Structure formats: C-alpha cells, structure tokens
Amino acid sequence: MTGKKYTAAAKLIDRQQYYVLTEALTLIKQMVTDEKTKRKFDETIELHFRLGIDPRHSDQQVRSTVLLPAGLGKKVRVLVFAEGDDARAAEASGADIVADDQIINRIANEGWMDFDATLATPSMMKKLGRIARVLGPRGLMPNPKAGTVVEGNDIQRAVDELKAGRVEFRNDKTGNLHVPIGKASFTLEQLEQNASAVLSAVVGQRPSAVKGIYLRRLVVCATMSPGVRVELGGAGK
180 by DSSP, 3-state: which? Predict the structure, then answer.
C-alpha cells in the first residue's frame, strides 16, 4: 500500500513514536479528512491489539462484546434464530430477519449471508451445528460467552443493543484483536468515547491464566491509512 495518499498520510506521523490515545485519534482524523489523504468513501476506524496470550490454550481466549456509546455509524441487519413464541418476540423486537429451517438451509447450501449480526435462543442452538463452519469464520456464530444466545424475554434488549452499536470481539489464531470503533465521518469525541469503551472492555477480559504483560501493543488506523501506535501506560499490564 504505497499510493500517493498513503505516502502523504505516513508523513503526518512518526512510525516509531507512541502517542496517547487522544493524539493518535487526532492524527487518524487528520488523515481521513485532509484533502491530500482522505478517501472517496467513509473509512472504518479500528483498534488493533497485540495480546500477551497463548491462543493455543482454551483458558487464554479473549471473547466478549462491548456497546459502543457513539454507535458504529451504519445500519446493522440483525438475524435471530428462533421459533414459536420466541420467533414472534423477535419479529416484534425489530429484528430484520427471523430465521427458520428454510433460512438455515439457505445458509448451509447457498452460503447466504445477507446480515451483519446474529442472535439465537438456546433451543435453536442444536440446529445451528450444520452452519457453524459458515458462520464461525465470519464471527457470526451465536455464542453464550458473547451474549448472542438469549432467552425469549431478552431478545428485545439484545436486538436493540446490536442495532445501537454492540460489537463482538475475539482474539484470532495469532493472539490479536481487531475491533471497529466508528467511521471517518465520526467526530473526534465520538471516536474517543468508543475507543475508551473498547479499551476498558478488552482490559476487563484479561484471562486469569495470562502471566506477564497482557496488552503488548495497540495501534489505531483507518481502512487505508498507516497505523498509529498508542501509548498504553498502566493499561498494558
């Protein structure tokens, strides 16, 4: 990625310096709004964490959700796997899609994925085993640890939170986390609110089995910008 805009953006920062979070976000905002560096689309702003975990061990997995105070800046299409009274509750909650056996078959046979987030009631989980390999790699498989397996009376709350900007995060096979915090069009204050919420949530999910430094590195970047290193201070311990 060495285009003119990327090169111009890279000149705005010292790639070896660590910036406090507000400074890092200010630089990213400059990159996505300056005429010399901004893109023709509303870039996504993300936090990238390097964690001091061993992802090979089940007791060192980091997975949870966080409600972004300023939202995600996009419409979230929510699919709920439910049946009977729970399906009716999902329809009443404003879910975009209520998935029955026909939709499960469509996902399994056609790879249909026209949705952004999923929920499921406990009784439906046994039916989702056949599509776990489709949903899992995309972070869309409902999971109790992520709060996406809910009882019928919790569907309304869960749908509302997903549409308001609740995002799931989980470490990948290399021990990294990648979490969106908004769009280039967001104000600096909105990005700060979301970034602080994500940082607090990730710190709060430190596995007890982890020894030594937990947060090893944090970088903030836009879709097509260079990364800006963030000073973690005490948060990284």
Answer: strand
